């Protein structure tokens, strides 16, 4: 007899604890269909009401601005179309430098922030001097305003006249941004590492993983997943703060807008630079919100189990 073709006895659970299975013959009752129609109509009504309220608010704000006494001067100084078209190529070239600074600083911040976080969470007695240095670093550079740090690094580091010191203003700006944001990102990573339950470590050690393997395969993946939304928020702020490097003189977007505005006595280039930053930060913000909602749903699902 072929055992693979032998019918196995049905041991599926029955009673109140039996799992629910979808019924192909299920048909919603009239009352259930009525509830579904009501929910769909309510959702459409809420969408229309929210859209209408938003449009009315925008119209009210626009009407108030246009009716203000100084609107004609503001329109000529900030919304000059010809000025915007003439300045936009220079602004776009400068904004590419902002993107370059952002990408370089982001990689450095991720690596250094993770290393500092790992040093701070370790409990090895021999690493106490490193833990103390990491704590002092985080406390100091989180307390110094980023703009002040750009001044200190941009003008103080070349003044030391050390061999190998970079002289390019944008490189000095990247160093300042890296020093500032690494302190914030290190604390974000440390919070993620501490959020992993100790039972995860114990289970990994029980399976035969050593400390390094536990950190790499168990703790770090969960920690990074937990802190991904706040990390994105920090990098959104970093993208905007690349404009602070303009005080050192590199021809990035804000500096290009400033030169154009000073030459033509028109502030429309500043608006153009702001639109370039918005074009990058808004998609990143929406993506961060999506990750936060996904993390919240995962947390609720875990709590439900």
Number of strands: 0
- Major sheet details: none
Helix-strand string: HHHHHHHHHH
How large is the share of residues in beta strands? under 5%
Principal-axes shape call:
flat
Instruction: Please give the share of residues in helix.
Output: over 70%
Detail the poorly predicted runs.
1-22
Radius of gyration: 29 Å
Number of helices: 10
* Assembly type: single chain
Distance between the termini: 44 Å
Structural class of the secondary elements? mainly alpha
* Overall average pLDDT: 85
Task: Describe the overall structure.
It is a single chain. With 305 residues, the protein is mostly helical. The chain is built from 10 helices and no strands. The chain has helices at residues 30-67, 71-78, 81-121, 128-143, 146-159, 169-195, 198-206, 211-241, 253-264, 268-304. α6 crosses α8 (211-241), α7 (198-206) packs antiparallel against α8 (211-241) and α8 packs antiparallel against α10 (268-304). The longest helix has 41 residues, at 81-121.
């Amino acid at each position: 007899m072929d055992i693979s073709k032998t019918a196995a006895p049905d041991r599926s659970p029955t009673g109140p604890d039996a799992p629910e299975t979808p019924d192909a013959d299920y048909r919603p009752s009239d009352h259930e269909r009525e509830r579904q129609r009501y929910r769909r109509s309510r959702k459409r009504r809420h969408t229309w009401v929210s859209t209408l309220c938003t449009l009315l608010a925008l119209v009210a704000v626009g009407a108030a601005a246009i009716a203000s006494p100084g609107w004609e001067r503001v329109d000529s100084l900030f919304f000059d179309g010809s000025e915007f078209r003439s300045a936009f190529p220079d602004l776009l070239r400068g904004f590419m430098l902002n993107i370059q600074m952002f990408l370089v600083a982001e990689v450095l911040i991720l690596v250094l922030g993770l290393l500092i976080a790992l040093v701070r969470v370790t409990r090895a007695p021999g690493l106490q001097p490193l833990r103390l240095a990491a704590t002092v670093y985080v406390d100091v550079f989180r307390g110094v305003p980023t703009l002040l740090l750009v001044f200190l690094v941009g003008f103080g580091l070349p003044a030391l006249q050390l061999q190998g010191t970079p002289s390019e203003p944008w490189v000095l700006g990247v160093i300042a941004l890296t020093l500032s944001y690494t302190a914030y990102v290190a604390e974000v990573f440390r919070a993620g590492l501490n959020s992993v339950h100790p039972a995860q470590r114990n289970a990994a050690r029980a399976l035969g993983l050593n400390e390094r393997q536990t950190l790499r395969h168990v703790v770090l993946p969960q920690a990074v997943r937990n802190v991904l939304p706040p990390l994105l928020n920090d990098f959104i702020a970093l993208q905007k703060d690349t404009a602070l490097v303009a005080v050192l003189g590199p021809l990035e977007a804000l500096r290009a807008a400033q030169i154009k505005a000073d030459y033509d006595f028109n502030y429309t280039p500043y608006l153009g630079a702001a639109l370039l930053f918005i074009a990058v930060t808004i998609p990143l913000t929406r993506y961060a919100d999506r990750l936060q909602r996904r993390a919240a749903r995962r947390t609720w699902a875990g709590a439900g189990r």
